[in-house]
Amino acid sequence: MPKVENSDFDNVYWVEISDRKVLATKNLAPGISVYGEKLIKEKGIEYRLWDPFRSKLAGAIMKGLKNMPIKPGSTVLYLGASTGTTISHVSDIIDINGLVFGVEVSARVARELMDKVVKYRKNVIPIVEDARRPDRYAQFIFKKADVLYSDIAQPDATEITLNNSLMFLKKGGYLVLIVKARSIDPVLPTGEIIKREAKKLEDAGFKVIEILNLNPYDKEHGFILAIG
Question: The CATH number of the domain where 47 resides is what?
């Protein structure tokens, strides 16, 4: 029988399976697997295993993340929601009293997000739009975000993220920036690119509190956590 233990973060768990510990979240949509992840039950509660090779937030936890900005009841603006792998776990963490706005530019990808995630989770609001144009979806974001989570593959991803933060992030809110090094610069070492993007956040008035290299879970990717 799998053994479930609390982690250091609310609504994030460790599951011991065959002498190894894996991450999990409590399933807000029991019986529904989003990306083929295994579902397990303990004491009548269903958990979803959380794959750090599929989710950069899980990868950051595995790499020793000390501060989890996403908590039960949080309002999150998620740029680059994709098909719903990470945003579904965010939905689990924030629970029924939280809310996550998921911005995805591709209509085809967004349909998969709706079919796999939104259909079963009332705390996920999909927005099919380009994150470069926050003015186009401002009308749909009816409350300021506690956390802005940005995972977009663009050379100017940091600038796009900062523009969204100006419109939607609460004062004192958290910003998570996933740095996709090769999308930004095909030549510079990953570490240098991550530091450069962190400096951009600092120049914009954010305090960077954690920087993680996500290797081996996501090669040539960085995770930056900052507070406004």
Answer: 3.30.200.20
Q: Give the number of domains in the chain.
A: 2
pTM greater than 0.70: yes
Buried b (16+ CB within 10 A) or exposed e, 180-219: bbebbeeeeebeebbeebbeebeebebebebbbbbeebbe
* DSSP assignment of 165-227: HHHHEEEEEEEEEEEEHHHH-SSS-HHHHHHHHHHHHHHTT-EEEEEEE-TTTSTTEEEEEEE
Residues spanned by the domain of 10: 3-51
Span 85-134, pLDDT tens digits: 999 999 999 999 999 999 999 999 999 999 999 999 999 999 999 999 99
